[in-house]
Amino acid sequence: MSHEVPRYRFLPFAFERRPEPEMRARAKAFADELALRRSVRAFRSDPVPEDVLDHCVRAASSAPSGANRQPWTFVVVTDVEKKRAIRRAAEEEERRSYAERMNDEWLTALEPLGTNWEKPFLETAPALIVVFRHAYSCAPGPWSTSSADHERRFQNYYTQESVGIACGFLIAALHHAGLATLTHTPSPMGFLGRVLGRPENEKAFLLLPVGYPAEDCTVPDIARKPIELVRVRV
Ligand SMILES: Cc1cc2nc3c(=O)[nH]c(=O)nc-3n(C[C@H](O)[C@H](O)[C@H](O)COP(=O)(O)O)c2cc1C
Question: For residues 61 and 53, what is the distance between their CA atoms, to the nearest angstrom?
Fold first, then answer.
């Protein structure tokens, strides 16, 4: 066992136990609010406040992570040229995916959503948040940055799960703040690290255009599975 890193200090946990009626009301209100979230693929170009996005990123970064490595970076892109470069590269990958990479079953699954290789929202949305997963770290604690010592590699744990949870927090926070977004995966996403100059240990995980829905924005009429189908009690 390595003794390179000291143990954390342990503090009393400030926890407020709520009366059951209050718990019930809060749980219902939260579920009702999240149920209104939809993936949006047409945005207005109005800018969004930077500090609002920062709070949402803070919410995302409060997620649990394997061994507390916090293996994520959230790149907030508002620069017009960068957004254009991302759109161009994403559409190139998506054009190939739709034409060659996706099999018939996949294309059939996407058919009802009416999506295709064109991604104009990558330019019209005022902000793109690109989430990167740290496949490994360059520091023994969670504080690895792009300027850190890249000679040493420190293992991270459950990075897919950790970053997935952080993205869930981010999507919920954006919705709660009054913004719309899309969970976008223009795969393969290696171009995002190159366009945004991220270090080798950071792998693009998700691309979230963020903004306000276009005035004529429509969303597919889908239904969520009822709780009886998704919850099992034993
Ligand atoms: C991991 C993941 C990847 C997704 N990738 C795309 C994508 O590349 N393009 C897209 O238009 N939608 C994408 N979606 C959005 C889904 O199509 C959408 O969440 C689903 O149809 C349900 O609709 P809702 O988000 O409005 O509830 C993705 C969703 C997830 C969770």
Answer: 12
